[in-house]
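Section 5: illustrative case.
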């Protein structure tokens, strides 16, 4: 599973977290450990392998923390009982994640009316879930999506929108400035939320936020609160994954330096609101909302 996450067979913060939870559950179910200590050690190893798969994935880390935490805080010492505990906390986590996504769609789809033009970037399953909800609510709106170089995840969004019957326009990333004026709002996903209320998302998002501000188009981020990275509270920067040069130019001259960051930080000043399971909140209140809703994330 870690390999599939690393080579992007599984991608999108949510899908990555779901797969990691399933991998932990699978590892637990197939354990050969005879003692609780040996079982805990196996879980720790699985956690480290998954953590190392992609660095900018706080939702995955929080998910694993929740699932493994059930064993760490348990008094049980029979391995079979601990395996059952992993399965039930994995199931609980996935159910709550699904609920959060539905709640985000319910709240966010109210911002879309007949005739609204939505601008989006990359492919976020949370964004497309929201747009699906709006479309099934019989709203007729239009979507503009960027192709999102170098891996063109915007094409995935475009296909999904067309399948829904939504009028969709695909643009090259560098056409953002000339097209964003047509939009009524920008909605993008998130890979990480930081303690300062900044958002980390696919490379290109910060430029879109700047251009949205210039064009006076409201810029919204949809995100489960569990994308909050508690390490940012302690002064750490969210680490930004650097991807391989071949994604940009296969066969490039060897002495050419190619820089390929997968994500970047969008400063909270550019964000009108974070659409999360607690409603639409200002970015600077992300920390307080996480503390209230998920205190265990900070422990
Ligand atoms: P959901 C993606 O990154 C995009 O940056 C997207 O906005 C974000 O994950 C969140 O996606 P990548 O994994 O969790 O494709 O909303 O590099 O699906």
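Designed sequence:
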């Amino acid at each position: 599973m870690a390999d599939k996450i690393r080579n992007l067979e599984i991608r999108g913060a949510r899908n990555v977290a779901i797969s990691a939870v399933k991998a932990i559950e699978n590892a637990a179910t197939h354990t050969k450990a005879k003692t609780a200590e040996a079982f805990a050690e196996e879980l720790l190893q699985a956690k480290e392998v998954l953590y190392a798969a992609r660095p900018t994935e706080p939702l995955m880390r929080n998910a694993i923390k929740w699932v493994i935490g059930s064993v760490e805080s348990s008094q049980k010492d029979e391995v079979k009982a601990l395996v059952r505990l992993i399965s039930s906390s994995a199931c609980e986590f996935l159910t709550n994640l699904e609920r959060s996504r539905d709640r985000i769609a319910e709240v966010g789809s109210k911002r879309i009316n007949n005739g609204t033009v939505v601008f989006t970037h990359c492919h976020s399953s949370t964004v497309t879930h929201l747009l699906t909800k709006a479309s099934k609510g019989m709203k007729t709106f239009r979507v503009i999506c960027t192709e999102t170089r170098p891996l063109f995840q915007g094409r995935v969004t475009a296909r999904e929108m067309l399948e829904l019957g939504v009028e969709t326009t695909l643009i090259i990333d560098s056409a953002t400035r000339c097209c964003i004026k047509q939009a009524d709002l920008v909605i993008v996903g998130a890979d990480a939320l930081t303690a300062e209320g900044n958002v980390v998302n696919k490379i290109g998002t910060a430029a879109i936020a700047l251009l949205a501000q210039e064009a006076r188009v409201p810029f919204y981020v949809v995100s489960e609160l569990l994308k909050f990275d508690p390490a940012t509270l302690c002064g750490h920067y969210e680490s930004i994954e650097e991807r391989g040069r071949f994604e940009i130019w296969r066969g490039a001259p060897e002495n050419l330096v190619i820089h390929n960051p997968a994500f970047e930080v969008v400063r909270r000043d550019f964000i009108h609101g974070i659409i999360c399971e607690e409603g639409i909140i200002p970015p600077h209140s992300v920390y307080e909302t996480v503390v209230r809703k998920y205190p265990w994330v900070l422990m």
